[in-house]
């Protein structure tokens, strides 16, 4: 049942989602003169309007179903247009009930608390709530439909579902089912009374329900449809897995030749010992879980549960509880999940994800002596992988760089207000590179060669602002300041001063002050990219800088790849390196674990608008020397209403340089500096092998352990 204004919104969404799952006929009943522009099967009821409450509409649609389809169908369902119905579950449910008898099935209601005694219902009378659906057997409709006119002429309330229940009770001699389970079968979402199931759909109620109500926003019908299609795919994969195991078991029982030599990995039964490592390095380690998760192979050994892992564990718990409560009614007990006390998890890329969980459950006994007690159970779970499935797509990297922008330009008419600035315009926006520098001439020359090759020679819309510090220390460093100025002047003469700007600063080097000086030369609407001299870039970073920043709402903090010490990487393994004249450099596009790590704790490289930088207060100019100023700015953006885009960027590589930590630094800066230096020595596997292969280090470690234990 719908209204004229909802036919091509709610009605159309239902028609394109759950209606296709119904093994029968679905029609949308509306007022006289109603029709759809998109082929929704509408029945305009003569003499019926869209006035609320829709009592006449509700009764007339039942009469229409009786007059046109009474001999063609066993069951008739009346529901609102903001419902989602699972056709397969509905059919399975109704097949289990005798349709030749008068049946009136729904979620029983007696009215709201404030309406009790005002609906002309006795203490033993009820009605079926209209929203999640009323189900009539053929016999029920046959008995009550001829008296629809009489029921309409004797209305006691304004509630159409109450009056239909009264009519069925009077002329069919039955009333709505009192069954407790109906509130779970035809599910009314009281948690989101005016919502649309916007929260997580991973719940027992949603999974087991036949209908879900209400879905006020039509677009969420597609979300629900997509979720149930994905769960159906999972069930089919699981069924395939069980069939593979059955085939393997039958082959084994029949003694089929060759079955022991060609065992499909999908056919193996769940086990934590499917994979047997042949070497120590092949052992797959476990992560330990309590509130946080602990793992030795992660850059952050103690961290909170990631969203993907949390979702996976929720799925595992739901499946465990479904299994343990499968025969709960026959056993007279149920187990409810309380919490995970601790657990272990690992992922085997060949077989699946393994979990060992210590669960706290609530045991509820319903038969005999009733009791409720907490119990602990260990669960050994394996989420088995199935065969790999993939779909080939056109490689996007072969397309012209502006093609995507031109396609997106077509959608500019959908923009409103300030968002009318198109993606195409955004890709042409000027980027102001701001870089403070003190000494380091050789590294600066490399940076300028890289900047020239990918930005200046190609005519990109960029400008480099270099802030040179003129400190007493740097004056004696082989004339680094004078040579840096001379180098920049050469680029100015070659590409004009609009491409490169020289800014001189006095006093001790301060990265925060240098960035502020460079940013001050730009207007408030300028897009800034704060960069270090050690960064090696590709031309693709420009689009990411532009598209990941929005003035007044979004800033970009890329995660760059930081290289290890070249001597540790290139020693005995030149595949990762380019070596010339006994000097080796790591390939900046080699992102393997042996060559470096993603600097997830680095916030110094960032893109933002000058106005946004000013809005949060900019850099703390009291911070001198190495580090901390970037963390302070990042914290300011977190505390603001700005959105932070934090993502790996393969177009930026932090080339290795020796880190010197001044003992006179602020204690927090000194600790951060030492941590960064230690992180850059080499990979964990390389360092651990060196320790194990160095007897003096091993003996020192043994002495330390003995001293601690004594």
UniProtKB/TrEMBL annotation:
Any single GO CC term annotated in Swiss-Prot or TrEMBL for this entry: Golgi cisterna membrane
GO molecular function: glucuronosyl-N-acetylgalactosaminyl-proteoglycan 4-beta-N-acetylgalactosaminyltransferase activity
Its membrane topology: Single-pass type II membrane protein
Domain of life: Eukaryota
Keywords: Glycoprotein, Golgi apparatus, Membrane, Signal-anchor, Transferase, Transmembrane, Transmembrane helix
EC number of this enzyme: 2.4.1.-
Enzyme class: transferase
Similarity section: Belongs to the chondroitin N-acetylgalactosaminyltransferase family.
Protein name listed in UniProt: Hexosyltransferase
């Amino acid at each position: 049942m719908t209204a004229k204004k909802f036919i091509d919104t709610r009605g159309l969404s239902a028609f394109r989602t759950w209606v296709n799952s119904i093994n029968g006929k679905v029609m949308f009943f509306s007022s006289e003169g109603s029709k759809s522009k998109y082929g929704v099967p509408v029945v305009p009821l003569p003499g019926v309007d869209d006035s609320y409450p829709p009592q006449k509409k509700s009764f007339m649609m039942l009469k229409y179903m009786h007059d046109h389809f009474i001999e063609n169908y066993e069951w008739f369902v009346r529901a609102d247009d903001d419902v989602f119905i699972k056709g397969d579950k509905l059919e399975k449910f109704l097949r289990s009930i005798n349709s030749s008898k008068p049946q009136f099935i729904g979620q029983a209601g007696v009215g709201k608390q404030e309406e009790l005694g005002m609906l002309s219902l006795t203490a033993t009378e009820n009605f079926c709530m209209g929203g999640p659906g009323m189900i009539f057997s053929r016999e029920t409709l046959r008995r009550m439909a001829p008296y629809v006119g009489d029921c309409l002429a004797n209305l006691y309330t304004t509630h159409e579902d109450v009056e239909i229940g009264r009519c069925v009770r009077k002329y069919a001699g039955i009333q709505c089912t009192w069954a407790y389970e109906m509130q779970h079968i035809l599910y009314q979402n009281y948690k989101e009374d005016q919502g649309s199931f916007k929260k997580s759909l991973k719940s027992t109620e949603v999974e087991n329900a036949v209908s879900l109500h209400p879905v006020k926003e039509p677009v969420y019908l597609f979300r629900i449809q997509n979720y149930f299609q994905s769960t159906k795919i999972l069930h089919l994969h699981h069924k395939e897995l069980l069939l593979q195991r059955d085939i393997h078991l039958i082959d084994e029982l029949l003694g089929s030749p060759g079955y022991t030599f060609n065992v499909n990995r999908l056919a193996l039964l769940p086990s934590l010992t499917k994979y047997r490592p042949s070497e120590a390095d092949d052992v797959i380690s476990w992560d330990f879980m309590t509130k946080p998760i602990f793992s030795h192979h992660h850059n952050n050994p103690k961290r909170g549960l990631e969203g993907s892992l949390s979702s996976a564990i929720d799925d595992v718990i739901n499946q465990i509880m479904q299994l343990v409560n499968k025969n709960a009614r026959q056993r007279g007990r149920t187990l409810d999940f309380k919490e995970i006390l601790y657990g272990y998890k690992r992922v085997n890329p060949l077989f699946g994800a393994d979990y060992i969980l210590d669960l706290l459950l609530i045991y509820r006994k319903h038969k005999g002596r009733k009791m409720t007690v907490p119990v602990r159970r260990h669960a050994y779970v394996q989420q088995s992988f199935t065969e790999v499935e993939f779909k080939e797509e056109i490689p996007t990297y072969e397309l012209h760089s502006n093609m995507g922008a031109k396609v997106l330009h077509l959608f500019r008419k959908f923009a409103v207000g300030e968002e009318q600035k198109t993606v195409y315009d955004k890709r042409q926006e000027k980027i102001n590179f701001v870089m403070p520098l003190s000494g380091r001439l050789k590294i600066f020359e490399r940076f300028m060669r890289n900047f020239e090759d990918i930005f200046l020679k190609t005519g990109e819309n960029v400008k480099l602002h270099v802030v040179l510090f003129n400190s007493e220390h740097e004056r004696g460093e082989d004339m680094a300041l004078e040579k840096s100025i001379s180098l920049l002047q050469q680029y100015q003469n070659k590409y004009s001063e609009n491409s490169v700007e020289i800014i001189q600063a006095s006093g001790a080097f301060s990265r925060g002050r240098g960035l502020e000086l460079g940013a001050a030369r730009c207007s408030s609407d300028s897009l800034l990219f704060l960069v270090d001299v050690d960064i090696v870039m590709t031309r693709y970073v420009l689009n990411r800088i532009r598209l990941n920043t929005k003035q007044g709402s979004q800033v970009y903090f890329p995660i760059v790849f930081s290289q290890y010490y070249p001597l540790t990487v290139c020693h005995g393994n030149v595949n990762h390196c380019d070596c010339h004249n006994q000097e080796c450099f790591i390939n900046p596009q080699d992102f393997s674990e042996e060559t470096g790590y993603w600097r997830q704790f680095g916030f110094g490289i960032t893109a933002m608008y000058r106005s946004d930088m000013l809005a949060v207060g900019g850099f703390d100019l009291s911070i001198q020397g190495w580090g901390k100023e970037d963390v302070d700015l990042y914290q300011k953006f977190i505390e603001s209403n700005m959105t932070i885009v934090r993502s790996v960027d393969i177009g930026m590589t932090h080339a290795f340089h020796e880190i010197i930590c001044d003992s006179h630094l602020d204690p927090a800066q000194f600790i951060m500096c030492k941590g960064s230096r230690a992180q850059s020595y080499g990979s964990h596997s390389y360092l651990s092998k060196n320790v194990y292969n160095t007897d003096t280090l091993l003996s020192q470690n043994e002495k330390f352990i003995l001293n601690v234990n004594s």
